[in-house]
UniProtKB/TrEMBL annotation:
Keywords in alphabetical order: Phosphoprotein
Gene3D superfamilies: 3.40.50.2300
Taxonomic placement: Bacteria, Pseudomonadati, Pseudomonadota, Alphaproteobacteria, Rhodobacterales
Response regulatory domain sequence ranges: 24-137
Protein known as: Response regulator
Pfam families noted in UniProt: Response_reg
Source organism (scientific name): Thioclava litoralis
Length: 236
């Protein structure tokens, strides 16, 4: 990170209750539910948030804005987030701090291999853990000088965002035939289900991504479970 950027962040108006005040965080995340959680975490921490839902959108943001921190989901609809992490960390210009995130803890090594400064396992719900994860990867000169009031609050995203994710997956499943599309559905839905504490849906999504490919019964089962949750009105 350049001296100019470090100096700018070092001057941000931090306070003990909102330790990320003055930071801009770009969240690269395709799940509306996970993005809503990040929005609430940033809001409660004092940070501004920008969101990109795919690699293409993230590149567009990075050409226009200079975020202080980038949080990248490892599974995106148009590629793997480790590609973006590697690009950001290998760029010649002043670089933001980058964290990888995934509901699959096996992706942590992939994130660090690409150059990530840290990793956030999903679901990201704890305000204190979120703040600590971001602060821990900032250079010492950019961290608050006063004691931080750690807040153990748990964030609960709006269920409407969850329904948006399920509607999106219902559309994708209706036409998904190739392994790449089905693999994306498996990754996306397993993460969403884990965040929503829906073990049955998570198991069905994981089965879709198993080695050797899913059976027709696996696809039908998962499609039915998604439709059942949408029909229930207030999913989960």
């Amino acid at each position: 990170m350049s001296d100019d950027l470090a100096g700018l962040i070092g001057q941000r108006p931090v306070n003990a209750a909102r330790p990320l005040l003055g930071l801009t965080i770009l969240v690269v995340e395709d799940s509306r539910y996970a993005s809503e959680a990040m929005r609430l975490l940033c809001l409660r921490s004092g940070a501004r948030i920008r969101r990109a839902d795919c690699l293409r959108s993230a590149h567009r943001h990075l050409r226009t804005y200079r975020p202080s921190v980038v949080i990248v989901d490892l599974g995106l609809p148009d590629g793997c987030g480790d590609e973006l992490i590697r690009e950001i960390k290998n760029a010649d210009q002043a670089l933001p701090v980058v964290l990888g995130t995934s509901g699959d803890t096996g992706m942590e090594a992939k994130a660090f291999s690409a150059g990530a400064d840290g990793f956030l396992p999903k679901p990201v719900e704890s305000l204190a853990l979120f703040q600590q994860a971001v602060l821990s990867v900032l250079p010492p000169s950019e961290r608050p000088k006063m004691p931080i009031l750690l807040n153990d609050a748990t964030i609960s995203p709006d269920p409407i965002a969850l329904r948006d994710d399920l509607n999106h997956m219902a559309e994708v499943l209706s036409g998904a035939q190739d392994p790449a599309s089905l693999g994306y559905v498996a990754q996306f839905l397993s993460g969403v289900a884990r965040s929503a504490r829906d073990d049955a849906l998570e198991d069905a999504a994981v089965a879709l991504g198993r080695e050797g490919g899913p059976s027709d019964a696996d696809i039908t089962r998962l499609s039915g479970m998604v439709q059942d949750r949408l029909a229930a009105g207030s999913a989960f």
